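Repro:
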Amino acid sequence: MKDETLLCFDDDEYEKNKGAIVPPIYQTSLFSFEKWDDIEQAFSNPDKSFIYSRLHNPGTRLVEKKIAHLAGGEDAKLTASGMGAISAAIMHFVNHGEHIITIKNVYAPANNFIAKFLKEKCNIESTFVEGTTLKQFQDAIRDNTRLIYLESPASITMELQDLEKIVALAKAKGIATIIDNTWCTPLFQKPLSIGVDMEVHSVSKYLNGHSDVVAGIMIGKEKDLNEILVEEHALLGAKMSPFESWLLLRSLRTLPVRMRQHMENGMAVARFLEDHEKIGKVYYPGLESFPQYELGKKQMTGYGSLLSFEIETDELEKVKSFVNALTLFHLGVSWGGHESLVYAPSISYSKELTPEEFKARDIKVGLIRIHVGLEHQDDLIEDLRRALDHL
C-alpha cells in the first residue's frame, strides 16, 4: 500500500470490531484469562500478549504497527512522551562507563539527559560534535563508544547529518545509531531503510498534529523493541494511555494531507523571510541557499515547516518587540500542530544551559524559531511583515 492508504486502512480491524469504521478505545488496565495455562502462556510471550496495559493494549498496538510499517521498521513502541522514547532507546544501547556521540544542537532535554543525567547517574560519557562532516564523528570515536545519537534536521538551526556515511562508519565500528526523525516524519525521511538501528519521534508533533497529545515512539528491529518492552519501557513505566492512542490513530488518517500543506506553507514563509531586509539568515533545508540543500534532497523527500531565522539585531528588547507584535503566531514551546507558533531559544536556553554551553551552540540573541501551521500562508506572511515593521 501507499503511505496514504496504509494510514487510512485498518485491514482486519473492521471485522474484529463488528464493522466499526473507528476502532474502539480499550480503556482497561488489565486483561483476564480463563485458565492457568492461558495466563502462563501469556507471561511466556509478553511481547505478543495482552496482560496489563503498561506493556500492551490492543488500541495502542494497532497504532504502533501502523507507524512501524510507515517507517519501514519491524516493530514500534509508544511511550508517554518524546523523552520517554528518547531515554529508553538510549539506555537500551549503552551501559555504565560507555560513551555516546551526538550533535551539539540536539534537542535540549536530550542534551541534558545525555550530558548530565547519564554522566552523573551511570558514568556514561558523551562528545558533542557539530555533525556536518563525517570526520567530526570519526575523530570523536573512542574504544568505549557504543552509540551515535542523531537528529537530522536538528530542531534549532536545522543542520543535517549525512546519514548514509555515518551509518556505514558506525556499522564498521560496531556502534549503534539512533535518530530523532520528528522533523521529517517517516513520510519525508526513512532512516531505517539505510541501516539506522532505531528511530525515535516526539509523537506530540506532526504525527499527532493537533496539540492535544503528549507522546513518543521508538521504531526499529523486533528484537530491540522486545527487549525494551520488558526492560526500559516496563521498568520505567512510560506507557501510552489508551485514549491518547485512539487520538493518535485519528491523527494518522490525515498525516499525508497535513504534511503537504505544512511543507507548502513553510516554503512560502521561508522564501518571504529570505527576501526581507531585516532578516540576516534563514535556516530551512528546503531553500536552495541552505548550505546542505543537496544533502537534504538526497536523503529527504519533503520538508516540515519548522524553521529558524536571525533578526538583524543584538538587542533583546527588539526581539521581544517583534515576538509580542505577532498575532497569528502564538508564543509557546513545542510545534507540529495545526497552529503557528513562535519561540526564541534565548528564552529557555539561558536557563537550561550554562553560559559556556549556550555560547558553544553559536546561538544569537536574534535567533527566532517558528512553526508554520495550517492557516493561510498569505495571512501568516502578513503577520510576520507587520511584526518586522516594529523593528
